[in-house]
Design a protein that fits this description.
Blueprint (H helix, E strand, L loop, with lengths): L7 E2 L2 E10 L2 E8 L4 E7 L2 H4 L2 H15 L9 E5 L2 E5 L12 H19 L13 E3 L5 E3 L4 H4 L20 E2 L2 E2 L9 H4 L6 H17 L9 H10 L9 H10 L26 H4 L2 H24 L11 E5 L5 E4 L9 E3 L5 E8 L4 E7 L6 E2 L7 E5 L5 E6 L2 E6 L6 E5 L6 E3 L4 E4 L8 E4 L6 E2 L10 E6 L5 E7 L4 E7 L2 E9 L4 E4 L2 E6 L2 E8 L4 E2 L4 E4 L4 E2 L2 E2 L1 E3 L4 E4 L14 E7 L4 E5 L5 E6 L5 E6 L9 E5 L4 E4 L7 E6 L5 E9 L1 E8 L7 E4 L5 E6 L5 E7 L7 E7 L12 E4 L6 E6 L5 E6 L6 E6 L7 E2 L6 E6 L3 E5 L5 E9 L2 E11 L10 E3 L5 E7 L11 E2 L3 E5 L10
Antiparallel strand pairs: 1-2, 2-3, 3-4, 4-6, 5-6, 7-8, 9-10, 11-63, 12-14, 12-62, 13-14, 14-15, 15-16, 17-18, 18-19, 19-20, 21-22, 22-23, 23-24, 25-26, 26-27, 27-28, 29-30, 30-31, 31-32, 31-33, 34-35, 36-37, 37-63, 38-39, 38-61, 40-41, 41-42, 42-43, 44-45, 45-46, 46-47, 48-49, 49-50, 50-51, ...
Helix pairs in contact: 3-6, 6-8
Length: about 900
């Protein structure tokens, strides 16, 4: 039954006929629910009207729908006798083409086949017609595994054997499946087939891409099948380097054929080959051989004379790696976008990059390939790292530690990690990772399971991040980002004992007897003894202006001599005063007036009368951080706290006479109150095991909302309400839980202007979003943000401001209706907010002006100043940079 434009199949509207084949007609359609275009394959009527075959097809389709690989066109489901699939734009590949071009396609086909084979699924009908190359160069395999689902007789012409319908001819020995010209011999004989039939078809397709000729081409199906069973390929027509691979793929005896197509690249002859003109010209080959014989005599003499001389040291060669097409690398976004990791064998690199629609995703780039391949299912991924065998990648996303095949496939969750900060995978398949800023480092099996701590977390020392296993698989490097010191330490998975290596302002990596780390934006290398676990020589500078993000330096190194790093045009540092501007801006992000910059500040909150703001000076001395108050009219800062402890999170009282804040002067960060006029002492409001940070004071002055961190680090972060007494009043009630789901984080509660509502961020959707609930009892909730959000602020004219994951300040209209709330229009205000250092903005009472500490460039441009197309620098043989070649 043919379909016409406008026909509706469930939520799908038919747009046009896209093509037809042995498995039915294919239509382009619009998915009205998700707003995307799809491909609709209408099953043949003889098939659709057979309940048994339809039921079998549905079972197979469910299995195939589980395939999730960037080189396999996805199956979305079944709808009224039709198969709904991913719409793939592009053309089927045609030869002849160069080896590099053919292998760019062939390697992606092999990766898709390997992924499916490992899951027990065989394509059975691989041919050029079922391969599409997208305009971006990505390969997609179509109709994956459908030959099995269609394994009963289907009517169709067989006049075009090169692209004949999938054959299902019953024979005495079984059933023939596939297209004649690409069938394996055992398939042509009607025998049962396995993954080796796909390996055969892969060889036939690769031969065709290289030569432009169909390998088996008879006058009809019978003649073509006869060639499949008897004809031997002409190996002279293909480059020498690929002959060994094709011979292994095109063994007629499946027992002798290459079993795992994933091993295809290992059979390529990587030695330098003669030019094509010599290969194809016998006379030229003879002349070349004669010339070679003449040259061998003097060469032999030269070789003898210099045999005992030390060969010249190989230089360190540099190349550049650009971001994947239509993406950017990103600096200091607060979620580690732009980080990358070289595989242990030095052959691949996994990249994090941001797409044009703001998605942060992982890409795999083989260093011998021209383009990177997207890893599907990695939205929001951060801190990627490799398995020792180069086959898997681990990363953090959705509040979890995950892993997936480097060739693609569905991610597998290994452990809970609410805000992961790096990991490392040992040779013994143990992973050590940093689950958050307030946890010890944990260990978990690479197969998943229970976690256990391998370090002790001391809040005064600061977050523990970015472990890196040393060669023994027991000891590991990691970074302490403390207030008093920031250092590299060594831990042991069998004990909590640690050793300090030395100061650094990034993580450290080890390779070939050297530590790599970053100091003052310079990438350094220093000799390191893995037996004594100590540095042993002088530091050597490697590269200047290397950025860092959340302690992670933008560099990666392997034992094979591969080093990758990124250099910015100018040093990019959080707190670089030349990059930051303190200004009043309007709701369109335009600068109203500029204020004198007091330094790298955080935790901004305006006073109730809007004449001042309190803040934490992040650029204080390393030993402590203090709270300051800025007089806006005079543009003059004054210090509010003076001791050697860490004070943060200033919150004004509704009457503007005092400020509450957190201080760790008694071990944990507790809550204190202090008068603005500095009379009297500091009043301790709440002391307990576990750190606390005040976030908002109710308009009636009776309650504080407080972020609470458990002492063990395992309880996450949640919101408590702290009753606050007036001066001279009786002792208030003890603090109590306001929001604590247990499994997720709730943080940064903010009272509405009338005190009846609380805006906050929560990870209940596996990433931080903004919600609103009622106060004093949280009844129901309204989700405000949809693409991620943190650090909400209310304005008195019924709006909520927040920062999205890219550092863009957003504003949402909040509509009051019959005692409930609704979300109206949401739009961006300005880019360039640093999101990992507490509030860098506050909103005036009327919401007309925003006080913001942002990247200067964001006030003149709509482009995020932290995104960058700056290439990565690839260095081969990095030991040559050290001057000793070791």
């Amino acid at each position: 039954m043919a379909l016409t434009a406008g026909t509706q199949l469930g939520p799908y509207e038919i747009l046009s006929l896209a093509g037809a084949g042995g498995m039915g007609e294919v239509y382009r359609a619009k998915d009205s629910k998700l707003g995307r275009e799809v491909a609709i394959k209408l099953l043949p009527e003889t098939f659709a009207n057979d309940p048994d075959r339809t039921a079998r097809f549905e079972r197979e389709a469910k299995l195939l729908a589980a395939l999730n690989h960037p080189n396999i066109a996805a199956i979305y489901g079944l709808e009224q006798g039709a198969l709904v699939m991913e719409l793939v734009e592009g053309d089927s590949p045609k030869g002849p083409m160069s080896f590099d071009d053919a292998w760019h396609i062939g390697s992606q086909i092999a990766a898709a086949l390997e992924y499916a084979h490992e899951r027990g699924i065989v394509h059975r009908d691989l041919k050029p017609a079922n391969i599409k190359v997208t305009p971006g160069g990505a390969v997609k395999l179509l109709d994956f595994g459908l030959a099995k689902a269609f394994s009963e007789p289907v009517a169709g012409s067989t006049s075009d054997v090169s692209n004949s319908p999938t054959l299902t001819m019953a024979t005495e020995v079984g059933v023939i499946l596939g297209t004649a010209a690409y069938m394996a011999p055992e398939q042509a004989k009607g025998k049962n087939v396995d993954r080796r039939a796909d390996t055969w078809a892969f060889g036939v397709v690769l031969y065709e891409l290289l030569t432009g000729e169909q390998l088996f081409q008879g006058e009809d199906v019978a003649d073509t099948l006869a060639q499949v069973l008897t004809k031997q390929p002409d190996w002279e027509k293909v480059p020498v380097r690929v002959r060994r691979l094709l011979q292994a793929c095109l063994e007629k005896d499946p027992k002798r054929r290459l079993r795992d197509v994933g091993d295809a690249s290992r059979l390529l002859d990587e030695t330098k080959q003669p030019s094509d003109s010599i290969q194809k010209n016998p006379l030229a080959l003879k002349i070349a051989a004669a010339a070679l014989a003449v040259l061998l005599i003097p060469l032999a003499v030269v070789s003898f004379l210099h045999f005992r001389e030390k060969p010249p040291e190989a230089p360190a060669l540099r190349a550049t790696i650009l971001p994947p097409e239509n993406t950017t690398f990103t600096f200091n976004s607060g979620n580690a976008v732009g980080l990358f990791a070289v595989s242990p064998d030095g052959r691949k690199i996994v990249l994090t990059a941001r797409s044009m629609d703001g998605k942060d995703q992982l890409w795999i780039r083989s260093l011998d390939a021209l383009k990177a391949q997207l890893l599907a299912g990695t939205d929001g991924a951060t801190f990627p790292f490799w398995s020792p065998d180069n086959r898997s990648i681990a990363f953090f996303a959705d509040g979890k530690l995950k892993k997936m095949d480097a060739s693609g496939g569905p991610p597998i969750t290994l452990a809970y990690a609410p805000s992961g900060r790096g990991g490392s995978w040992s040779k013994d398949n143990v992973i050590v990772f940093a689950p958050s800023n307030s946890d010890p480092l944990l260990r978990v099996s690479a197969g998943g399971g229970a976690t256990s701590p391998v370090t002790k977390f001391v809040i005064e020392e600061g977050p523990q991040r970015l472990p890196w296993f040393l060669p023994d698989g027991k000891h590991f490097l990691y970074r302490i980002q403390g207030n008093a010191d920031s250092s590299i330490r060594i831990g042991n998975i069998d004990s909590n004992e640690t050793k300090i290596v030395g100061p650094a302002n990034s993580n450290a990596m080890y390779a070939r007897g050297h530590l790599f780390f970053r100091n003052s934006s310079t990438l350094m290398a220093q000799p390191f003894d893995v037996k004594t676990l100590s540095v042993t020589g002088e530091v050597v500078p490697i590269a200047e202006n290397v950025p860092a993000n959340l302690s992670a330096g933008y560099f990666s190194v392997s034992e094979t001599g591969i080093l990758v790093y990124q250099s910015a045009r100018t040093p990019i540092e959080l707190g670089n005063l030349a990059e930051l501007t303190l200004a009043w801006i309007d709701k369109d992000g335009k600068q109203i007036s500029k204020l004198r910059n007091p330094g790298d500040i955080a935790d901004i909150q305006l006073s109730p009368d809007q004449s001042k703001f309190a803040y934490t000076l992040w650029g204080s001395t390393p030993e402590n951080k203090d709270i300051w108050i800025y007089d806006i009219a005079r543009q003059s800062p004054s210090r509010f706290t003076f001791d050697s402890a860490l004070e943060r999170w200033p919150i004004w009282s509704p009457d503007g006479k005092s400020i509450v804040f957190s201080s760790n002067k008694k071990q944990f960060a507790d809550i204190y109150r202090k008068a603005i006029n500095l009379t009297g002492g500091e009043e301790l409001l709440w002391q307990s095991n576990g750190s606390k940070a005040p976030t908002s004071w109710s308009p009636d002055g009776n309650f504080l909302l407080v972020n609470t961190y458990s002492a063990s680090g395992k309880g996450g972060v949640h919101i408590w309400k702290l009753p606050v007494k007036s001066d001279g009043a009786e002792k208030p009630l003890p603090p109590s839980v306001f929001l604590d789901t247990g499994n997720f984080q709730e943080i940064d509660g903010q009272f509405s202007p009338d005190g009846k509502w609380v805006a906050y961020s929560s990870t209940e959707t596996q990433r931080s979003e903004i919600y609103v609930t009622s106060f004093p009892d949280p009844v129901g909730k309204l989700q405000v943000s949809i693409d991620g959000g943190a650090m909400p602020r209310w304005s008195t004219d019924g709006e909520i401001f927040y920062v999205d994951p890219t550092g863009k300040l957003m504003v949402s209209e909040i509509i009051h209706k019959n005692g409930s709330l609704e979300v109206g229009r949401t739009r961006p205000v300005v880019t360039g907010i640093i999101i990992q250092r507490g509030y860098k903005y506050d909103v005036s009472k009327g919401g007309k002006r925003i006080l913001a500490h942002v990247f200067s460039a964001s006030l003149q441009s709509t482009t995020d100043p932290r995104t960058s197309t700056e290439p990565l620098t690839l260095v081969t043989n990095w030991p040559a940079l050290l001057g000793n070649g070791k």
